[in-house]
Amino acid sequence: MVNVAVVAGGDSGEFPISIKSGKQVELYMDRDLFSPYLIVFKGAKWSYRIGQKGFPVDKNDFSLTFGHRKVRFDIVFNAIHGTPGEDGRLQGYLDMIGIPYTSSDVTTSSLTMNKNLCKQVVASHGVKTARSVHVVKTTADPVTLIGNELVLPVFVKPNCGGSSVGMSKVNHKEGLNPALELAFQEDDGILVEEFIQGRELTCGVMKSEGSIIAFPVTEIISKKEYFDYEAKYRKGMSDEVVPAVVPESVSKQCQEISRFLYEKLGCKGVVRFDYIFNGNEFYFLEVNTVPGMTAASIIPKMARAHGWNLTELITRLIKEELKSQ
Ligand SMILES: Nc1ncnc2c1ncn2[C@@H]1O[C@H](COP(=O)(O)OP(=O)(O)O)[C@@H](O)[C@H]1O
Ligand SMILES: [Mg+2]
Questions:
Q1: Does the beta carbon of 28 sit less than 6 angstroms from any atom of ligand 1?
Q2: If we measure between CA atoms, which residue out of 232, 225, 284, 228 comes closest to residue 254?
Q3: How far apart are the first and last CA of the chain?
């Protein structure tokens, strides 16, 4: 039997979503093949719970001790959105103690968590991105800089954020300062990006049995002005259409770019690329290297449309990683 530590929680605003993802992965894991243990991360506390009793992880070897019994893990299934699971920190620790994991490595995770750096790499491979400026605390007169470089409306985003937290769409120059202040509450760096008018399309990609597979393209139709926190997590505030109702050539192109970027960025496990399609071209928004796995999340829906239920998806993710050991 393969012992799998399903890690969830973490230290970002996405903690509750990650717990839901972790529980779902634990629930749907094939018990004939794997023994899952859900381990919750909160700061320096990493623990496994049985009822009211918590069992701390021994960080020397990432093991659990139950009386005289010690459980070691063959693999970590990463379900931590945001830090420390999506930015490479956990990956660095696991690499050092020699435990494989189901998500991208240190370099890819830390690059993709940094929206500003990631879009530069993506652009260097010829994929379009929105025009943007990077603002830090020492940037002199950011409002003038933005006014000179970009055309409003713009999105003001914490550079390493997620779940649309601390983000605003700014339609008028007067809105820039409050939006920058809000984003600075989340991060020391801010990405200010021109608004791209179009449809929001997203594509899940993973490696299985040696080939890179792109799932059916999905359209996100938000009932809010954009895919903000409420649209993401309140039931009925957005529709996810799987597969997207677009010409086949458009979905093929989206899948092709996504597979290409998966390879170029060196991704592992299942990831989700988000774009705005302006009717002509795809603008890369971001890549999520630990996408949601909750009952409402997009990746499980995409996998189902591809013909895999959640159990099969999880099995494939674990097997792919164990095979490469
Ligand atoms: N440049 C842009 N043009 C149009 N819509 C955008 C742009 N940037 C972000 N958005 C909208 O905001 C949402 C969240 O932005 P994103 O960069 O994915 O941040 P997060 O990491 O918080 O999800 C997107 O899903 C999209 O709806
Ligand atoms: Mg996003």
A1: no
A2: 284
A3: 17
> At 305, which amino acid appears?
A
Mean pLDDT score, 268-285: 98
CA of 299 to the centre of ligand 2 (A): 13
State how far the Cα of 49 lies from the Cα of 278, in Å rounded to an integer: 47
Phi first, then psi: what are they for 321, rounded to 5°?
A: -75, -40
Residues 6+ apart with CB under 8 A from 288: 81, 86, 112, 162, 271, 272, 274
Q: Is the CB–ligand 1 distance for residue 232 below 6 Å? A: no
**Which of these, 32, 31, 57, lies nearest to 43 by C-alpha position?**
57
Identify the structural domains of the chain with CATH numbers, from first to last. Answer: 2-101 (3.40.50.20), 110-128+198-289 (3.30.470.20), 131-194 (3.30.1490.20)
What is the 51 CA–ligand 2 centroid distance (Å)?
35
- The length of the chain in residues reads 325
Provide long-range contacts, Cβ within 8 A and 24+ apart, for 12-18.
12/81, 12/82, 12/83, 12/162, 12/163, 13/82, 13/162, 13/163, 13/165, 14/81, 14/82, 14/162, 14/163, 15/42, 17/81, 17/163, 17/233, 17/292, 17/294, 18/79, 18/80, 18/81, 18/82, 18/85
The pLDDT tens digits of the residues spanning 144-181 come to: 999 999 999 999 999 987 777 899 999 999 999 999 99
Say which amino acid occupies 190: I
Nearest bound ligand to the CA of residue 227: 1
What is the Å distance from ligand 2's center to 114 Cα?
A: 12
How many whole angstroms from 169 Cα to the centroid of ligand 1?
9
Helices (H), the chain: 15-28, 89-97, 106-113, 115-124, 142-149, 176-184, 229-233, 248-265, 298-306, 310-323
**Separation of alpha carbons 228 and 169, rounded Å:** 10
Find out whether the beta carbon of 195 lies less than 6 Å from any atom of ligand 1.
Answer: yes
Tens-digit pLDDT profile for residues 216-253: 999 999 998 888 888 887 888 889 999 999 999 999 99
